[in-house]
Amino acid sequence: MTFESLWHDIEPVGRSGSSGGYFRQPWASAELELRAWFREQATARDLAVEEDPFGNLVAWWGASAAGDAVLTGSHLDSVLDGGAYDGPLGVVSALAAIDLMRDRGVQPARPLGVGVFVEEEGSRFGRACLGSRLAVGSARWDDVAGLTDRDGVRLGDLVAGGEPTPWLRQVGRFVELHVEQGRGLVDLDAAVGVASGIWPHGRWRFDLTGRADHAGTTRMEDRADPMLTYAMTALAANKQARLAGQRATFGRIEAHPNGTNAVPSRVTAWLDARADTDEALTDLVAAIEKQAAERADRDGTTLSVTAESVTGDVAFDSSLSTSVGRGLPVLPTQAGHDAGVLQAAGIPSAMLFVRNPSGVSHSPEESAETRDCLAGVDALADALTGLVA
């Protein structure tokens, strides 16, 4: 099958008619449909499919051999109201690359796997790259089994969990193809590039507590309003990130009791922060927390900050990246990826990026042109051939 026919199969799955964006949350109907599609495509190619206790899938071309296999692939889940390409492009391109390699007569001397990691976005249970973290052991099942989604559904009720199975131990190298989530390749006028590394990044929960009160009868000076504290904290995050040339975003917020005519008693907000060095990230979050605490003192509210997930600086394997990206432009990424988790766990990893002409990601406006996607398949097939043949 061609890349175009594969893409045509999955393009409508999980798409919202109102926004045009995608809702492919893990273990929900759209993502489960894509997982079934992946199994069908693997079977049609005589690839042996394996599933670990956390729901990660891998389809093998060739018999496994400890420490010698090459892995490619990405993820199929999306953020809420996300774009079409973030994740699925890497899975579809991997299958298309295998087809192209077979057309070229490639006979792999070592196994090649196409992996699908679950809950990469963290859009349902709030932990980015959860599937790959569980697979490599950097997250423990006992620590995450009790996580709940927005509807109160427990992760442990959806997937068996337990101890990691040894499938990842046979992987010697990982190459992930992904749509670029910025304008680097647009500015470089290049269809495909290779990643140098991933910025340090993390998620912090800000719990702000005040006093519930009447929106009409309570004088402004008599309030202990955590929403005011949050509002100033969001502005502080914007200011501190701009001053430092880094990234800070409050993209999710919950208010209790969430009534129009009531001063809230509690506001919970999640900070996503990213920086070009580990030290810069620490300084950025500390500066935001300091201003939030000062504002809480003035508002008569209390502040608690919890680091939910933090990932340090990741530099991809230089030798592998040079081999995979021969002749391609090199650029860093500020987005987290499963490749970063595997690299941090000691598995040499590399990433290929496909140009995104809009420069927009995590949005229905995310895009990629077919000719650039085909160039990505060619680059991936070349890279994998060099690694397995």
TrEMBL record:
SUPFAM superfamilies: Bacterial exopeptidase dimerisation domain, Zn-dependent exopeptidases. Zn(2+) 2 binds at D86, E121, H362. One of its GO terms (molecular function) is hydrolase activity, acting on carbon-nitrogen (but not peptide) bonds, in linear amidines. Keywords: Hydrolase, Metal-binding, Zinc. Belongs to the peptidase M20 family. NCBIfam families: hydantase, PRK09290.1-4. Allantoate binds at R203, N261, R274. Residues 204-298 form the Peptidase M20 dimerisation domain. Pfam families: M20_dimer (PF07687), Peptidase_M20 (PF01546). It comes from Nocardioides antri. InterPro entries: Amidase_Cbmase (IPR010158), Bact_exopeptidase_dim_dom (IPR036264), Peptidase_M20 (IPR002933), Peptidase_M20_dimer (IPR011650). The keyword ATP-binding does not apply. Coiled coil: none annotated. Zn(2+) 1 binds at H75, D86, H178. It comes from the Bacteria. This is Allantoate amidohydrolase. Its cofactor is Zn(2+). Binds 2 Zn(2+) ions per subunit.
